[in-house]
Amino acid sequence: MSIPAFSLCVYCGSRPGDDLRFADAARAVGSWIGRHGGQLVYGGGHNGLMGVVADATQAAGGRVIGVIPQALVDKEAANRRCDELHIVQNMHERKAMMAERADAFLALPGGIGTFEELFEVWTWRQLGYHAKPLGLLNVAGYYDAMLSFLQNSVGHGFMGEWQMDFLQVGTEVDTLLPGLLCHPGTGDVAPLRDVI
Ligand code: AMP
Asked: Residue 182 has what pLDDT?
């Protein structure tokens, strides 16, 4: 078995959403990972966009690592076709393992689970707990309102542009993913003086 070129952690909806472009984007991400010899790290379920990205990764020859809490094995239809399926005790263990196994993080459209996961690794990045790149694939304008709200927060002085700069936002898989993965794990860490 060859060593994967990179590990990309993808956060996305456990539902498909109301627009076929969401699933198309999830498929494109999985396919990109597989074609570039990479590995997907994700929540291990087979529902919604999560199943789409996992299947597309394997269909294109990539590896898939799923991490799912015991309590969600049935609810989220644990994906037994994962190359590695880790059944863990709770959400904290899930998120920690996903973060550990990843070189970079990417959020696709999703619901509050997706938001929570993205915001957690983003806050960890601003605090200097890791230096891994973070990306947001803004499919069909799904995240426009959230990005505008975040700019509102910058405008009100609760965030700095330097925090926004940690999040690479794109609309195209072929341009966003190379930007995230060209130097996996070597992104700049926020200087602590900016945090305190
Ligand atoms: P959603 O975007 O709400 O469809 O959820 C996407 C994934 O995030 C699912 O696998 C959920 O189990 C997961 N999720 C939901 N809440 C949390 C949480 N607090 N921490 C980590 N993952 C979560």
From this structure: 76
**Nearest CA to 98 among 76, 117, 71?**
117
CB of 113 within 6 A of ligand 1: the answer is: yes
Domain-located, residue 10: no
Residue 196: inside a domain: no
Q: Is the CB of 93 under 6 A from ligand 1?
A: no
Domain of residue 96 covers 21-139+156-185
Residues of the chain with pLDDT under 70: 1, 183-196
Total domains in the fold of the chain: 1
Rounded to whole angstroms, how far apart are CA atoms 155 and 157?
A: 5
Q: Is 117 in the pocket of ligand 1 (CB under 6 A)?
A: yes
CB 116 near ligand 1, within 6 Å:
yes
**Domain at 44, CATH number:** 3.40.50.450
Ligand 1 atom with least separation from CA of 43: 10
Place of tokens 């597309």: 56
pTM higher than 0.90 for the full model? Answer: yes
